Predict the 3D structure of the following.
Amino acid sequence: MLQGEQMLNRRTLLKLGTASLAATLSQVPGRALADNGLAGSPRRAVCDLRFEEGRAFASAMIGRGVPVSDVAGGIPDLWYRDLRAALLHRRLAFIGLTDRTALFTLEELARDVGMRVGGRTDHTIDHHGMASHRTTGSSAWRRAAGRLGPERGFGADIAALLAAPGAYDISPAAQKYTGPFAAAGSVTLVSWWIA
Amino acid sequence: MALPLPPNVSERDFRAAMSEMSRVVGPDWTFTSEADVMLYRDSYSILWGESEERLASAAVAPANVEQVQQVVRIANRYRIPLYPISTGRNLTYGGSAPTLSGSIVVDLKRMNRILAVDEKRHFAVVEPGVSYFDLYNYIKEHKLKVMLDVPDPGWGSPIGNSLDHGVGYTMAPFRDHFGAHCGMEVVTAEGEVLRTGMGALPGADSWQDCRYSAGASVDGLLAQSNFGIVTKMGFWLMPLPETYFTGTVTVPRYQDLTAMVEEVSYLEDSFLIGYPTYGSPVGGGFMGPPPALAQLLRNGWPSIEQLEDYVRSAGRPAWSVRLNFYGPEETVRANWAAAKRRFAQAIPGAAFEDGIFLKLPVAAEMEPNLDQTIKQALGIPALEIFMAVARNPMTDRDPAAGHADFFAIVPRKATALWEAARTMFEAYREMGLPAQHDPFTTPLCFYSRAFMVITIVPTWRDAEKNRRSRDLLTKVMDRCGEHGFAPYRTSPAFQEHLVGKYSYGNNALLKFQQRLKSGIDPNGILAPGRYGVWPANSRRSGA
């Protein structure tokens, strides 16, 4: 858990994440079918610490006791050495705030374990630091994500949204979607959940 | 979006067939809901959302060869086409989507055993669901002294990749992945199991030592084809080299490329170097031509004299090539010395620069920091390439879904390279588009004995944009075909158009393949239509 002014970096995050994950897996009774949607707390979050909002997201998730992985360590290691084995054992939803490339690769890989993107929100941050959000998913997910504001700090808000108990159905509209156009000079991120 | 039924199959028969298949593979591995089947859509499809987009009717994931056999027999009874995939990640070439809409995808992901990796005889035997990452991690964990040759991205399967003539980046015998295979096990359209090469001799331990049995070799029939479902495959591996070294050669003049290519070919064909990476310090590469070159190109393709003037005024070498050396340090350094001597003798003004030197294997903590091209050269699978094309941050503003491409096979000589680049340049101009090619276009060398010249077009979630991409690729394909250049593979959207180019002898090759198909798979249940091959009972067959 983050305390005080502890700086969030990959080493900290992995240490906290690994400890939490170990605890999570030890509680898994055995193989079960995937949850139909995102209900209850996710069992893993994926972030990108290169981005300020990614760091905010990660901090918020750690604060909620959700194990977090940074994609900067490489999606191959994250998937082939970690997530895939865990998800084959039990398909529990995982969530993230990353760039589009990371989501694309994880979405393609998730088919291996019968999982798919349930909902996503594309965030476009302009050169003033103001964000616009475009959500694709079920009406419940769109309502929830529709509350995101344009100011900095939406990473933590998304974390709150995804980590809080709630039920969002999987929407095919969110799958294999490339994302909206973004003006030159923007930063594009996407928050998502896979179940 | 409604799922299509298999062609000429009633809903009742389809449901009955799925019920039977479910009893074979298990209900957890039978996918008939729209939500599940849509996961097999081709993310890169250039026909996304259009009536011609290829969609599956269902998918099944068998666990072993026996289940594959049973699925095939059921499909035969109901005349339902199947489309086998290994990992289904051959994006750009169709991915996990079938060639014929309504086919049942046979997802071989559960067949994911690494059956053998022999570090003395240097081979591996794998099942279709094994990815390059899986095999690489296995080799690392067991500290085996062999090196993979991997495609980029590395999430695909050695079986799937090689059967589509996929390629890599190391030494010539290994980077033609199908060329590096030795022995396969195949489920036929009738549900029998055959093994090729020495695998056909019961009790032989030489299945991965010798490709040939007595009599006709059929391995080639299983690549880019629809003649069987491959359930095991052997691959020759490179012994882990002691060291890896790169050296770069530059040459001053535009026309020096001719001699440069000849010297590189000598080194490649003598197995002294691995994949050569050509470049041009005065060309623009993927960034487009520098302003002075762009100005020159406004008036069409420049003359040789104009290009030599351009190079002189740029004040940098016209061409470069990075050479990869593998082996003990003493031979690597000796081979580099020999290469330098030959280049210096052949090309006045050739210059040389030592690159990196690595003892192998590299330490695990070093791997993430290696440049993408070094990872490729060392057989380390990665996924970073997705940043290079459709998901490049520079193009992320208007995000494309993926890309379709055209890797034209070009004779391995400078004049042919220039002709291919000019042909593509002029095709783009005909379409009123900025050219991707210029006189400094460099070749790819995946197949060691040929050049490839590439065109890439984006694919979209927008039908109109996709139509423009299709028109452009078709134009390039047609213009190149007129010059004797054609790609060695393509996405299903272009397969029939492409095989029509290979028309020697009044389409004798395709007709031969069609007749084989009619005999091997008379009911046309295995990937019908793949690369234009249909059984005789299909109206689409010309046989």
